[in-house]
Design a protein that fits this description.
Number of domains of chain A: 3
Largest sheet of chain B: 6 strands, mixed
Oligomer: heterodimer
CATH topology of the largest domain in chain A: N-terminal domain of TfIIb
Structural class of chain B: alpha/beta
CATH architecture of the largest domain in chain A: Single Sheet
Largest sheet of chain A: 3 strands, antiparallel
CATH superfamily of the largest domain in chain A: ADC-like domains
Largest interface: A-B, 29 and 37 residues
Order of helices and strands of chain B: HEEEHEHEHEHHHHHH
Chain lengths: 136, 274
């Protein structure tokens, strides 16, 4: 059975919130169509929105965390990577204070993920240095 | 006048057992329509079948057929989409033998919205709705009344607002080159806004759409800057009709003028340097 449908979603690239349809063919993204009748974007998109499907199945997309070892990025497991990040952030905080750390979030995350990240910055690290790619 | 939606639903239901899918529009979240391939295994989805606003379905038909070259599909098409499918077939983008056209006649109001001169389907064997007459395109007519200086000022002003989203190219059912001149730095400089004068992006596109544009007006509809792109495509189409006696989507057997097809056989070299 051929499976071709459209999934209405919000463009992940900035804070405007344009509506787009992801075109799904047999479980893979094959394109984007702007959503006519969408209250914000009214059927238009910018060049980023028109290409919003590209990164999802892209060959260059990172599928595992990378740790720089001897000047080279090496694939690692999540446990190892998160342990290393926690250790380094802890060291920076104790040596230079929490405001030596900044947290950059992403419009590609959900609201909830962004909420968690700012909570982490403020409540765990202790800094208000929070920003994100959509506030360009 | 009969109601097109139940009529179309019945036409699709009747056809579904004979094909691998029928490409049409489906109502989604927030009442927003999107293209959807209706299949016999999920015929209940036809409850959400929808008509308007139209979406660029022919382009999706091509994508599905490229992934499933032996599939038999049907497409609900208005006249402009019918033209799109026919022109795609002429340019080897799809095989008409694999496609059943379900003609959906536009209403007078829909024709007014699109300033459409030819809203009634002519090739589809299955037809839903009553054909209506074409309407004048006052936007293009007003443009034609301007003198040359006025026209230049008109386009300069409009192209100043272009954000180079490439939407007009992406949405176009007739833009299918593997290598696009608009991605060549020679013609269109990456990251340069506003457009230089002359705006090569739009001029290259205008030339490349000659004898190809099917007047579906999707480019104009998707333009975030509201550029009335259909004006120049319609005027070029008028010239093509005058000069080459060619109208897109009209005669399936007629080759487009920009296609040179040589008969098999021996050809003499001209002797000109290559």
């Amino acid at each position: 059975m051929i499976d071709s449908t459209s999934v209405l979603t919000t463009c992940p690239y900035c804070g405007t919130g344009c509506g787009l349809h992801l075109q799904v063919l047999d479980g893979r993204l094959v394109g984007v169509l702007p959503a006519k009748g969408h209250p914000i974007s009214e059927g238009g998109l910018c060049i980023k929105g028109w290409n919003a499907h590209e990164f999802v199945g892209h060959a260059d997309r990172l599928r595992k965390p990378l740790i720089r070892k001897g000047g080279k990025l090496v694939e690692a497991e999540w446990d190892e990577a998160l342990t290393l990040v926690a250790k380094k952030l802890g060291a920076i905080k104790s040596e230079s204070g929490p405001d030596a750390i900044g947290v950059l979030s992403s419009a590609k995350c959900t609201n909830e993920e962004n909420y968690v990240l700012q909570k982490f910055a403020r409540a765990v690290v202790g800094t208000n240095n929070v920003d994100h790619c959509a506030r360009l | 006048m009969s109601d097109r939606l139940p009529d179309l639903r019945r036409a699709i239901e009747k056809l579904l057992p004979e094909v691998d899918g029928v490409l049409a529009l489906k109502t989604g979240p927030g009442g927003i329509l999107a293209p959807h391939l209706f299949v016999k295994e999920r015929a209940a989805e036809l409850e959400a079948l929808a008509l308007w606003p139209k979406e660029p379905l022919p382009d999706l038909l091509k994508k599905i057929l490229k992934a499933h070259p032996t599939a038999k599909l049907a497409i609900v098409c208005r006249r402009c989409e019918e033209r799109g499918v026919v022109e795609m077939a002429k340019h080897a983008q799809l095989d008409l033998a694999h496609v059943t056209l379900i003609g959906l006649q536009c209403t007078h109001d829909e024709a007014l919205f699109c300033r459409c001169a030819k809203p009634a389907t002519i090739h589809a064997k299955i037809v839903v709705g009553t054909p209506v007459e074409g309407v004048p395109d006052s936007v293009t007519d007003d443009f034609v009344k301007m003198d040359q200086a006025g026209r230049l000022a008109f386009w300069k002003e409009h192209f100043l607002h272009c954000i180079k989203c490439y939407g007009c190219r992406n949405v176009c059912p007739q833009c299918f080159c593997n290598v696009c001149a608009l991605e060549d730095e020679t013609w269109v400089e990456t990251g340069r806004l506003p457009m230089p004068v002359p705006p090569m992006y739009h001029l290259v596109r205008a030339m490349h759409m000659t004898a190809k544009c099917v007047a579906c007006r999707e480019c104009e509809e998707t333009c975030p800057a509201g550029i009335p792109l259909a004006i120049h495509f319609r005027l070029i189409a008028r010239d093509v009709e005058e000069m080459f006696k060619y109208e897109t989507g009209a005669v399936i057997e007629q080759s487009p003028p920009q296609l040179l097809v040589l008969e098999e056989g021996e050809y003499e070299r001209t002797g000109l340097p290559h």
